[in-house]
């Protein structure tokens, strides 16, 4: 069963004893750095079973590259609407990288939303993991300034008149929220699946879009206490959070994951469409 909360209650929580000990010895890392640090937690790594083989070939999307402010290139996968539109959905991958699951999910969203261009960002610069060990290495190797540069390059790629929604899972769930913060007034909607929330209320105050969060009650890291604190922080920031919590585990929405939960996935997806459609008009 799910628990639905609108701008939920204030509570305190922590994301893991490991991360807390890391934070105690140095300056507090960002929320995305905190999530990446979990790759050093063996329990977190072992909680991610290696994905089942998952193949998908899009007949609509294509690989593209775009320039960043520093002159380097970034990779992406794009699905363009049949008719010109200012509506864009930025998709940020899980800790596995920009793989076939992400491309398949993007095409599904593209078809179900209509009148939208979809851009899959690649924060791993072409690397895709097939083992949890590699996924952890790739996630920890992401440099925050590089990721921010890729996101800002994507914003420039779609142009200043674009209306931008974001969605991501796991590693990408946290970066979906960070992308919305970077997008500023162009942001129209933010969806995050079991990703690390932003914990700085002052940063949350700068959000220009509502947020939909799909979280798992059995998640040992982005757990109900973390989610409750996020709900309280969003309320303190004066922002709208539409919160859905499921009796499922971290990664429940990926069919290549052995702990995939089809019921929770369907409900989360239906709520995601209902949230995005009116905001991408």
Describe the structure.
- It is a single chain.
- With 281 residues, the chain is of the alpha/beta class.
- It has a single domain (3-49, 56-279), classed as Alpha/Beta hydrolase fold, catalytic domain (Rossmann fold).
- Helix content is 37%, strand content 19%.
- Strand 8 (211-216), helix 9 (224-237) and strand 9 (241-246) form a beta-alpha-beta unit.
- Helix 2 (31-37) runs antiparallel to helix 7.
- The longest helix is centred in the middle third of the chain and has 15 residues, at 144-158.
- It is globular.
- Mean pLDDT is 91; it is low at 1-25.
With strands numbered from the N-terminus, the spatial order across the biggest sheet is: 1-9-8-7-6-4-5-3-2
What's the count of strands? 9
Tally of distinct domains? 1
Q: Report the principal-axis shape.
A: globular
Summarize the topology:
Blueprint: E1 3-6, H1 17-24, H2 31-37, H3 42-46, E2 62-67, E3 73-79, E4 87-92, H4 100-113, E5 117-121, H5 132-141, H6 144-158, E6 163-169, H7 171-183, E7 187-193, H8 201-204, E8 211-216, H9 224-237, E9 241-246, H10 262-276
Parallel strand pairs: 4-5, 4-6, 6-7, 7-8, 8-9
Antiparallel strand pairs: 1-9, 2-3, 3-5
Helix pairs in contact: 2-7
List descriptors.
about 280 residues, alpha/beta, disordered N terminus
């Amino acid at each position: 069963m799910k628990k639905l909360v609108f701008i939920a209650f204030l509570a305190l929580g922590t994301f893991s004893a490991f991360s807390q000990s890391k934070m105690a010895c140095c300056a507090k890392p960002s929320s995305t750095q905190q999530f990446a640090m979990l790759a050093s937690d063996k329990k977190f790594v072992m909680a991610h079973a290696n994905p089942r083989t998952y193949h998908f070939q899009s007949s609509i999307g294509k690989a593209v590259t775009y320039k960043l402010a520093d002159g380097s290139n970034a990779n992406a996968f794009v699905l363009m609407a049949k008719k010109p539109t200012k509506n864009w959905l930025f998709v940020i991958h899980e800790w596995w990288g920009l793989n076939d699951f992400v491309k398949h999910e993007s095409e599904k969203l593209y078809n179900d939303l209509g009148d939208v261009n979809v851009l899959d960002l690649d924060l791993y610069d072409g690397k895709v993991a097939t083992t949890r060990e590699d996924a952890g290495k790739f996630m920890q190797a992401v440099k925050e300034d590089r990721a921010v540069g890729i996101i800002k390059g994507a914003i420039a790629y779609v142009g200043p008149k674009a209306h931008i929604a974001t969605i991501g899972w796991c590693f990408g769930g946290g970066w979906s929220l960070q992308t919305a913060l970077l997008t500023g007034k162009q942001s129209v909607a933010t969806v995050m699946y079991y990703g690390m929330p932003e914990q700085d209320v002052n940063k949350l105050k700068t959000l220009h879009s509502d947020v939909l969060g799909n979280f798992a009650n059995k998640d040992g890291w982005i757990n109900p206490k973390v989610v409750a604190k996020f709900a309280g922080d969003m309320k303190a920031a004066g922002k709208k959070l539409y919160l859905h919590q499921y009796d499922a585990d971290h990664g429940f929405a990926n069919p290549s994951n052995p702990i995939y939960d089809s019921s929770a996935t369907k409900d989360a997806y239906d709520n995601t469409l209902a949230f995005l459609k009116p905001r991408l008009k």
